Amino acid sequence: MTRLDPGRLRSRRLGERPGQLPSQLFIHGGRAPTRLSVLCFHPSGLEERDGLQLDELNVLLERGLPLWVRVQGMGNQALIRSVLDRLGVPEHFQTPLLDLPQRPRVDSSGDMVLAVLHRLSFADTPDRLIGEQIGLLLLPTLLISIEEVPKPSSFPELTHWLSCLDPAPAKEDLDDILHFLIDELLDSLFPLLEQLSELLEQLEEAALMRPKPTLLNRAYTARNTLRDIRGQVWPLRHQIMVLLRQNQRLLGPDALHGFQDMEQRVGLIFEACELVRRQCDSVTEAYMASISNRMNQVMKTLTIVSTIFAPLTFIAGIYGMNFVNMPELQWRFGYAAVVMFMLLVAALQSYWLWRRGWFQDWTTGRR
Q1: Does residue 129 form part of some domain?
Q2: Is residue 254 part of a domain?
Q3: What count of Cα atoms within 13 Å lies in the side-chain half-sphere of residue 309?
Q4: Is there a single domain that holds both residue 159 and residue 15?
Q5: Which of 73, 78, 112, 272 satisfies CB 3.0 to 4.6 Å to 150 for a cystine?
């Protein structure tokens, strides 16, 4: 069951967490049920076994064929630990595979290569980010993948591509499959950044046409989402570099070349994140410029009203003093003459301000 939890990718200090001691992350509705499947790489072709039991896994291991063991769902922790123990995975490698959430990492020790990543996706809108942890572990004759949220099929595109290969993949190709899996997870970030960029373009246009406080809140939410995506990419840059320097024996020449390309891809993703971050700044600047422009328009309107009514108030104040020796008070048409004079003054001022462009509205929306 997919969980909409946009904030779970960021860790907090222990003093900021509720309670006295850190514990497992509470998940409403429980964790997804565990399902076990295996891809067997026969010399004649690829064999897929779904809904596998632990006893059947032991039979496959006795054949000595290279396997891709795929675990989907983490509801049954005891079963997963039994599978990992049967596959010979040490305890210090089981912890990052089973504990949630983990920081993205690529590490190696002895004849094992570990990778912990997150499959990121958006909910109904690009404002909410969903993260699903995926752990990958490469052994001499085994490749293990543990997915937090089960799918109808585990990595269907890669599985279909492997089934079409002739000859079938062998033990030496497991390292290539590992970097193909990591590439697939990294490549899925580019559409997310594109959707986020399109959202920011719409927000920037709305900020120029119809600036509202809710628009600025959406821009800040998009910035937080971008920070989460960048936080999933940035640790990999240094760790992949360290992995390449270790000259891991499990990684062949093709896999090492693939990890070098992966390092460049991580750099491209980080550069794309920086470009989107600048778009967030552009939305904020456009919003502030629009608000300032509207405020200037309001002040200009008040200034026009004050400029027109200031001389009229002056004239009304003079003839409201009620002195005895004021000849205009005795005129028969004095009231009409003063009113006409005030209208003339207002008309002349309005014409003069109009010629100077004061009545032009610079806040109207664009068509």
Answers
A1: yes
A2: no
A3: 6
A4: yes
A5: 73
Here the CATH number for the domain that contains residue 318 is 1.20.58.340
Q: From 172, 200, 220, give the residue that closes a domain.
A: 172
Q: In this predicted model, what pLDDT tens digit does every residue of 2-26 receive, in sequence order?
A: 344 444 555 555 555 555 444 455 4
CB 345, CB 309: distance < 8 Å: no
341: CB partners within 8 A, 6+ apart:
315
Boundary (domain end) residue, out of 156, 172, 188? 172
Phi, psi for residue 225 in degrees, rounded to 5: -60, -40
Q: What is the mean pLDDT of the chain?
A: 81
> Is 316 part of a structural domain of the chain?
yes
CB count within 10 Å of CB 325 equals: 5
Residues 6+ apart with CB under 8 A from 347: none
SS3 113: strand
- The β-bridge partners of 132 are 119
Is 208 a domain residue?
no
Spatial strand order of the sheet with 105-109 comes to: 45-49, 35-42, 67-72, 142-147, 129-138, 112-122, 105-109
Return d(Cα 296, Cα 168) in angstroms, integer.
Answer: 71
Are 12 and 161 part of one and the same domain?
yes
Q: How far apart are CA 344 and CA 347, in angstroms?
A: 5
Cα distance between the two ends of the chain: 44
Q: What is the pTM of this model?
A: 0.73
pLDDT tens-digit profile of 72-129?
A: 988 888 888 998 988 888 888 888 888 888 888 888 887 888 899 988 888 877 778 8
Residue 204 CB burial class (10 angstroms; 0-12, 13-18, ≥19)? buried
Q: Which residues contact 112 (CB under 8 A, 6 or more apart)?
A: 89, 90, 93, 137, 138, 139, 250
How many helices and strands, by DSSP H and E, does the chain display?
9, 7
- What domain range includes position 323? 296-355
Count CB atoms within 10 A of the CB of residue 337.
12
Q: Count up the domains in the chain and report the number.
A: 2
